[in-house]
From TrEMBL, chains A, B:
<keyword id="KW-0479">Metal-binding</keyword>
<comment type="similarity">
    <text>Belongs to the methylmalonyl-CoA epimerase family.</text>
</comment>
<protein>
    <submittedName>
        <fullName>Methylmalonyl-CoA epimerase</fullName>
        <ecNumber>5.1.99.1</ecNumber>
    </submittedName>
</protein>
<dbReference type="Pfam" id="PF13669">
    <property type="entry name" value="Glyoxalase_4"/>
</dbReference>
<keyword id="KW-0413">Isomerase</keyword>
<dbReference type="InterPro" id="IPR017515">
    <property type="entry name" value="MeMalonyl-CoA_epimerase"/>
</dbReference>
<feature type="domain" description="VOC">
    <location>
        <begin position="5"/>
        <end position="134"/>
    </location>
</feature>
<dbReference type="InterPro" id="IPR037523">
    <property type="entry name" value="VOC_core"/>
</dbReference>
<dbReference type="GO" id="GO:0004493">
    <property type="term" value="F:methylmalonyl-CoA epimerase activity"/>
</dbReference>
<dbReference type="InterPro" id="IPR029068">
    <property type="entry name" value="Glyas_Bleomycin-R_OHBP_Dase"/>
</dbReference>
<dbReference type="InterPro" id="IPR051785">
    <property type="entry name" value="MMCE/EMCE_epimerase"/>
</dbReference>
Amino acid sequence: MTLGRLNHVGVATPSIEASVETYRNLLGATAIGEPFDLPDQGVRVCFVDAPNTQVELIQPLDEASPIAGFLKKSPAGGQHHLCFEVPDIHVAVADLVAKGARVLGAPRIGAHGTPIVFVHPRDFGGLLIELMETPRDGSH
Amino acid sequence: MTLGRLNHVGVATPSIEASVETYRNLLGATAIGEPFDLPDQGVRVCFVDAPNTQVELIQPLDEASPIAGFLKKSPAGGQHHLCFEVPDIHVAVADLVAKGARVLGAPRIGAHGTPIVFVHPRDFGGLLIELMETPRDGSH
């Protein structure tokens, strides 16, 4: 495995609408996607484009959402995860498991429509790392 | 101001050496800079290159370092800040101040040799945002 591009930084927020306004007003973000729900993951997400990567704003859909737990500790929101691209999710998972890292669950389809997995923060210096298979159409 | 490229993600760590090994071993990072001290900011830093951006590993130089405080709350380390590039730091600061955002101190020279400032997390959804003037030689 070779370190791939940072597809996005995941940012937890109690309000996508308020966060979008902050990125627009304070930093001049203009390329902002439509928010959409990922019910399987209990979240609503919205991508804000920087020229070289994206910020994924993540709002809990309900109290059972892992993001709801995050916001209990940090009510204003904050950085939640880093997502790096990999060419093949199954190769990446096998590699990580062989090295003793804890991969959280089986690959599932993520916000960009390609398979993703998360690596346990205890195996990555306190950071929650998402690995995402690069979309074949080159979009991100 | 228009949202600029994400120059780097700042990551606090109790040990740059251990973090570098994690990025190398688990994610296959190969482009890893030499660690260096920023004594004015009380930190030692090391940049790990992804194809489109960088991870800035930040280790406290002493107990007075703001990163030491961060690690008291999150001993394993974690995401610390997001750094976006701006063409002119003074224009960016004037714009933010005019919009009522709290800019932390005057611009100072950052890890890439160009002026930086930080924006208060309370004005940015719990995220610590660094703004950094784009290096004129195009390096990053």
